[in-house]
Amino acid sequence: MAQINSRFSSARELAKKAARQPKARLHRSLKSSRRVACKTNGIVWLVFLGSVILALPTQVVAQDSSAIAEDNQQVKGSRLLQPSSFGFKIPVAQVLPNDLGNVETIDDDEQPVVAKSYVKVGENYVVLLPTGQLVDRFAKQVKATNAKFEPTDPKVLARKVITENLGRFSNIKTHFNAAKPYIFIYTTSENFRKGTEKILVSMFNGVRAYAENMGMETHKPDVPLVVIMFQTQAEFQAYQAMPQGVVAYYDMVSNHIVLCEESPLLNIRPDLAQGQLISTIAHEGAHQILHNIGVQNRLSMWPMWLSEGIAEFFAPTSFGRSMRWKGAGDINNLRMFELESFLQTRFIEGVDGKTIRETVTAPRLDSTGYAAAWSIVHFLSRKKRRKFNEYVTQMSQLKPMRGMVAPSGEPVIANLEHFHAFFGEDSQENEENMIDYLGSLDYESPVAGFVHYVGLVMVPEGDEMKRYACCFHTQQKVDEWKSVLLKKLNDTQVQQAKWELKRVKNRGAANSIIRRFIR
Ligand SMILES: [Zn+2]
Predict the structure, then answer these.
(1) pLDDT by residue (tens digit) across 452-503?
(2) In angstroms, what is the span from residue 370 Cα to ligand 1's centroid?
(3) CA 76, CA 417: separation in Å to the nearest integer?
(4) How far is the CA of 461 from the centre of ligand 1 (A)?
(5) Do 12 and 160 fall within a single domain?
(6) Which among 31, 81, 263, 498 has the fewest CB atoms less than 10 Å away?
């Protein structure tokens, strides 16, 4: 219990600290798209609201790591992580080859238990308890054993999670399916539970098959996968305080995903709320699956762009009446939607490779970064498939307590070095190819049925009038697009340009206006 409590209080402190942090610089595209990710303290969380939030990670890189001999068996450029950044109390030390298999130790109730040693940090260990929780144990607290590791029985595990963490909530329900790896502990409606179960179960098999196809070995989860779901934001926050706007997370220490049925977007963007909710379930579900089938080691920190991009890659969902998981690697409509203004303005601005360089080295991602990360993963998986598979396979070798991270706030240069080695050094060429490819994708806009705004411009160029057009779901986006175009024009062009703005009932109508205008 003590360890659980201390970990939770450190997460709480972190959330408070995050709330006190100055707001990060507002990226232009963030004004309407509101999804931000941050990964810290072993928790991968999602934010949909708030201007730009950001929880700055605690210092995850071991401060004295330079004094510790680096292991050249590790993925090049990876750094040692602080055990304390996961809430562990064992001291910082080199990660050593794990010399123990199953071990006798005590659980959080101080009862003897057979656990699996997970990682050796100096003389001490992090071990996997039969509940799925990772805990730190000093060398003297573990003893090798030949006894079998038995995951906790799902019903016993659910009861334990409820007793230890959910005692203050009434009307908690549980749901198991013996054939499936999931345990649901929830206060949500039955419909939400059923919908979530359908998405996660179909994803589980699909993601595993896809990873095998990429050439990676996978295995069944060692423990049941726990999904905790709250009906309201108030319950979600009462369970574990999170910065405002966080709606879901995967905790790689407890191995739980935590979700909320009530979407804070409902009052702000009802058109997007349900699609975002479904997408969030799939996104966190992807993190949990990848960390439990052997693709991503728990306590290892992949490059942010790959970790989040691949979760989005594995998590596309469809909208409308049949909200469902579409299949690994399918087009992610929400991310394409977020990329719209990027794609439409890049046509005017030109492409210089900066988006790829900045996304790949980003220590954390804002909303546009998220979409960019998805687009890079999607592009590489389609157009540089063999290299992409090799790259992901290499990252899957990244050991626990190692990360592709940099000291707080600095870009992760090692990520770009890997990127160049696998995918070529010419970021501009890669970005041009990526944008061409994305532009060719036929995607289903989540707001296709809503009002759209069309911007039409004729600009004198020599003897001709050159035509530009755009369409967005808000007038503000058209204005932003226009200001990008204005910067490219000379004074005469600005004076003589003919601008027109049209408001139409849906995206189809907008597209047909553009087709007629451009032709
Ligand atoms: Zn994520």
Answers:
(1) 999 999 999 888 888 888 888 889 989 988 898 888 889 999 999 999 999 9
(2) 9
(3) 9
(4) 46
(5) yes
(6) 498
